[in-house]
Every structure is written in C-alpha cells, then in structure tokens.
# Entry
Amino acid sequence: MAIVKTTYNRRSFLKTTALAGGGMMLGFSWLAGCQPASEEALEMPKEWFEINSFLKIGENGVVTILSPNPEFGQNVKTAMPMIVAEELDVDWKQVIVEQAPFNTDLYTRQFTGGSQGIRQGWQGLRMAGATARQLLREAAAQAWQAPVEEITTEAGVLYHKNSGKSAGYGEMASAAAGLPVPEEVQLKDVKDFRIIGQSRKNVDGLKIVTGQPLFGVDYRRDGMLIAMISHPPAFGMKLKSVDDSAARNMPGIKDIFTIKTYEEEYERNAFDTNTFPELVAIVGNTTWEVMNAKKALRIEWEPFSDYTETVNSWGGKQSVRIPAGLENTSGHIAKMAEMAAKPGNVLRKDGDPEAAFKNAAKVIERTYTAPFLAHNCMEPMNFFAHVTADKAELAGPLQAPEFIEQTLSARLGMPLEKIDIHMTRMGGGFGRRAYSHHMVEAAVISQKVNAPVKLLYTREDDMTFGIYRPAYHATYRAALDADNNLIAYQVKAGGIPESPLGRGAANRFPAGAVDNYLAEEWAIASNITIGAFRAPRSNFIGGAEQSFLDEVAEAAGKDPIEFRLDLLKRAQNNPVGENNDYDPARYAGVLELAREKSGWGQEQPNIHRGVAAYFCHNSYVAHVLDLTIEKGKPRIERACCAIDCGIVINPDAAANMAEGAIVDGIGNAFFGAMTFKEGVPEKNNFNNYRMIRIGEAPKAIDVHFVQNDIDPTGMGEPPFPPIFGAVANALYKVTGRRSYDQPFLGDKQVLG
Amino acid sequence: MANFTLSINGKKQQVDVDPSTPLLWVLRDHLNLVGAKYGCGVAQCGSCTVHLEGVAVRSCMLPISVVGNQSITTIEGLSEKGDHPVQKAWLEHDVAQCGYCQTGQIMNAAAFLKANPNPSDEEIEAAMSGNICRCGTYVRIKAVIKTAAAG
# Structure
C-alpha cells in the first residue's frame, strides 16, 4: 500500500462550487448527463455532496465521476472514471459518468493526444478516488467514535469490524464533504484492484447505439444559425474577391462576409495552425440552404507571395517561411530525392560508420517513401459558438482546449473568464482536432452575426483544408561483415515540411545495438500545412525501419524475430552510445509474446507472414500478420498483436483500440494518400480518397497484453506505426518484391 | 418551399422545406432527429443510413420530394429502448470507439439481417461495404452481425 502526499495538483481536490451545475453548464445539460449503459437505470439521489472536482456522492450512495479529458473514441471516458472508482472502492454499478467541464483551475492536461491521457492522469485520478475514500473513512470514524485506521471499505460500504457498524458511502457523504482534505492518502496495491483490469462497457454505449445527441454536429440552440466557409481551392492561393450577388438572395440566407481567423501579426502557438488565413463565411437558417448558397458564390482566388510567420513552438519562438507556389506531388517526389542525395543534419553518430561501410562484406541500401495523409475524421470539423458582448459560449469537438483558449481570447478581445468551452464527444480526432481553428472561426462568425451559430465544414472543406500527415522519405543503409553481423547502420530521413526523425526518434532501436550508427535529417519547406496524425513521425519511420530490418535479416540469413532479439540482447548487455530511448528487455518481451501467440515458425501453406515491432509513446508493440491472396487481392487472415503498455485499465476497450489501430494501419498502408496538382488536393471526398472498408479488414485480430505492474503508458498510438512494416513484410512473402512506396496498393485493386 | 407530410418512426410529421432538401437535413435540422449523421454527402460513407419501407437508404442524397408517403425509420425509431437485437449485440460486443458512424452501421445491419437472417461472412462484407468506420471497428461489427443472426 503506497502512501502518497496530496500536494500533487492539490487544487483539484479542493471543494469547489463551480461544478454545482449552475451557470453556463445548464445550457449544455444534454451533453453532461450520462446513464450507464445498463438495463436497470439508477435511482437518482435527492442531494449530491461534492467531495472534490472529480466526484460527488448522492445520499443514496450513487456516485458521479467526472472524466476530465476529451473523448474521441479512445474510451477514456470509461477508463479514467474506472481509476477513480477503483481507489474510491465503489461498486461500478453505482457510478454515473459525466464529461467534466473544461476548467484549468480544476483539472490539469485536459488534452487528448500523445497517448498520454491515462499515463499522465494516472496519479491524479487515483488520488482523487483515494482522497474521497479517506474522507469517508474519517467521517465514519467521527460518527462511530472509532479510530480511522479501523474503518475499512468494500464496494461503496464503510465497515467498523470491532463495533459491527457499517454504512453506505451515501450516509457519510454529507459529513465527508465538510472535512478538510487529508495531507496524505493510501493508494491500493495493484493486487487489490477490482475494477482496473476488468473490462467495463463504454459508458456512452447506449446513447451511441440509440442515436442520441452526443456530438458537436448534434448541438442545437433556439435561434441558432448554420454557417459554412469557403476556403481557397489550392494551397498557395488566397482570397481575391467575392461576388455573392446570386447567393445573398437565396432562401434562408442571412449574411455572407469574409473573416480572418486570427488577427494579422498574431503570434501563434504550435496548435494554431491555420492553412487559409482568410475565408468566406456563409450564414443562414438551415444546412441545405447554406450549402446551396455556398455553391452559388463566385469567388476569385489569387496566388500569394512568400511570407513569414512567427510561431511560438516547442523550441521557442521561430520564424517560419511559407513559400509561394502551387505544388505538385511529382515535384515533391523529385525534391525529396534531391535532398536525400545531399548530406543531412547529423542527429546522432556512434563509432565510425564511414569506415565500417568501407570494410563491409555486404551493404544494403533501400529508400522508403510515404505520401501526405488526410485524417478524415468521420465527423467533419464543426463548432457551436454564441458570442455576446459579455460572454462566449462554445461547444464542439476538440482535443486540446487549453491550446486554443488564449488564441480565442486574443481574437475576441475577451478575457478567459468570460469564455466557456465545452468538449463534446468527438467523431474521431486522430490528431486533427488538436488544431481548433474551426472553433475560432465559429466564434468570429457568431460575433459578426450576433447570434448563436453552428459552423459545419462539408466533407470536401474538411478533406482539402490541410493539416495533413507530412510526406516522408527515408534512406537506410546497413553493413554486414563476413559473418553476417550487423556492423553499421545509417538512416537519412526527411519530409515535407518536417523530418520523421525529430524528437528523439534517432535514439530508438536499433540505435544502441550497432557499433557504428549514423542518423541524419532534412526538411523541405511547403505551403501545405501539416499536423499531428496518430503517432506523428513514428507512423512513417517505424514502418520503414521495420521493413528495412526485415530485409537486412534476410540478407544475413537470419529469422527476422531472432535477428531483432539478438540486436536487443546487445542493447541490453552492452549498449552503444548514450540516450538510447527504449528498454531492450520490454521491447524483446513483446516480440517474444507475439512469437508465442502467433505460433511463429509453424508456417502453413498459402499463409504469408510478416512481423514488425516498434516502441513509441512509451509503449512497446509487436505484430504478426498472416496474409493470404483471395481473387488476386491481399487479405489479412489474422493479426496477432502483443503490447506492453504497463497496467491495462479496461482490457476489452484497450483491445478494441489496438484492433482499430491495426485496421487503420492496414488501410493507410494499402490505400492512404493525398496528392496534389497545381496546389489542388486531388481527393476531396470518399469517392476518390480510398478508405479501408470491412471486406479489407483482417478476418481476425487477437491482442495480447504483457502482464506487469508498471504504471500505465500509452495505448492509442503505439500499435499503429509497426503495422506498416508488418504489411510490407507479409506482402513481400507473397510477391517476392519488397514494398517501398506507400500506398502499397494505391488504386490497384489486384496484385499484379 | 413546399409542404410534405412524412411518416417517420410511425408518426406523421409535417415539414415546409425546399423539395430538393435531402432527407438527412430534414431529419437533422427540421425534426431534431440527429441519429443519422452527415459524413460525406455523396452516399459513400453510410453514416446517414435510415430505412425507407424497411430498406436501408442513404438519406444524404435522397430528396424529400421523392419520399412521398413511404415509411421512414431512423435509429431513434429502430426500437423503443435500444433493445433491437442488433443494438443489443452492439452493446454486448462493445463495438463503438468514437461512435459517429455506428448508427448508420446499425441501421444498415438491421435491414440486411431482415432480408438475410443467416448470412455468410462474404455476404456480411458485401452488405456492409458501404459503411466506413474510420476507427476501424470492422472485426467487431462482423461479430455483432453474427451474434444478432444467431440470437
């Protein structure tokens, strides 16, 4: 049992009245109330007692737990409350979950991204539950005139063994709510967990399957108008003039005007990415009327000149040059090849790679590329805004309210305390909704028309707005000695407009396992905007590296898993260099688990196997894919996945997310691509942007978690990058040809 | 603008809209039935699926003027308490990730199972291929359809 000081984020435990359901929250009450998806509905208490900002207890013992982070499908709205409930020691059946309001005074890091929600929330959530349990025990101790140490709990009931007394949490809630926050609390031992590690159903399940309003697009308010935007049709273009004479008089249209999302010279943060600074806004009564008026606009666009903007990003203030021009995918490919032929910026160097390559018995050099990708969240970008002279109410899908609230405050000229942002359930995010320009746009439009407004992007607006996964390129070289030992390894990688080796990727495996190692990077400026996309950078470099290692293993005449394990043994026993960013034992652990569970080595006829593993976002994943050919098309019969992400909160939901990452990876490896001609994105809807469909998903997926007591690490992103390598390696077994350029199938329907 | 009397989830509803308005926007903007979702507007993703005379249709490209007095069922009317066999199996397999496409998937699956109560894997894949799930819950969707068919 761990004793933990409560000073960690102590402000969250202070009793607060801000949550008592008053104020602006009422207007959004349909977003908050959440019945568990069980057949028997809970009886609501007559009175709630707030214990801290994470939970309140009713006099009848029903507990409401607030889930602090935005939900975009990672099921954090179930998992986070499970952690609180575990330490509170309550019966999960007595728990109601609500989405917490966005409030930086009460909660820290209300951000969905980086696979960090559970990892960084872990301690605080446990303490929120444990603190409440402690207060309930103290309240019982006072009521029963017994030492607090003798008060035990189980599933929402307090016991005093010596006197034989017991009471439900509800009976002590009122007294507990009035007690001071304890200085230290006890946390459970992992072995005593009763909720964590036991699968619980999605708390929004019933609402989802019955189509109740949950999403930003479902938001509605009396007098609400609908808004849409028109943005330039090409990167490198800006607005020249608008002729709205036809559109303005169409039925239901209220106003048409241009907006600038940010003030000129506004110093942006890294998440203020905004592809098109000036937009045309169309506002009217209903979606269909606004859509029609949008089509009737006659807008002239013109090329812009080079410009520079200041971005206050990770590395401090930077000047970013945005080049003029209408870019082409063919030009991108040529430029990347050109850059790859020049020396790059050295990120890491161990030993003497030049000499080792000169003395090698065998040198393998391969180049991998991947295109831009659009996120294509099923729910297009949208936001509700109601801005009046003295307050701004916003509701919609966003991953990172904290990153955009200052920007909104600056844009509206309104202090933060007058701005209220509500996080709706998101119809997907994948990184895209960390960039919430659309929220600012909705607010600016609402301010202009002086009415509540719901801004909706059409699918085409959404897919052609930019903020894409960058295009990437990587050249690998490996040197083998006469005994087929890997003696040198080089990677030179770049992209448009960022390298995939940034933020430590150069220190990942096989760095640390090879005596002579060199990592270099480069980048090409572009006016096509990019943003985080599930496992940024890793989503390319992980697959490319794992594909290359497969080929090196083959050249060395070794089993691909054995080859990796040998290198990991080296990294474990006698690591090369400094700052190696992985734990070789845990990395080997997932490879071994996948080897065991997949039945590696027991090959069957017509089943073609590919293996890959990767470490990113603090977790380790290995995949073995079994591929077959059906009517000329590749199909994954079975995906076997091993994950080490420490303690798993909600195993079935975690498996679901891994299944999703596997399907997402297979889809993008086979088909995903955004291409450009004269600055115009060549795909703008699902009729030409190929998405994976049910008949292309694996027939079966089994997900296995390494069992350990390590505090939880990341889950949403780590299973994604290695899939690209596993797909390429399995395809090779079928065709005898290596796949170097994504998408591997593209528009091809049949392997030829 | 024109008046239309629609039969939705067993109730007559009147709307005054442009005849070209797709059923999806009539449901969402005029009748506050938001279970059918906008995903693409070009009948490529299936998020907007509803039933017309029991047959799954994409409401985003179906003009209200052609609906006439055919009966419309939306996810809100599929069952009283979310207890249609497909909905129950959906909860049992805890399919949803983001949840956005799921109502369209459920409506498509429900109409399909009615027409084909005992489908093969290939038939399930063919019938459900018009519904995109960006989160990638396809393996579970297939399992649900089998559970609902068996149950």
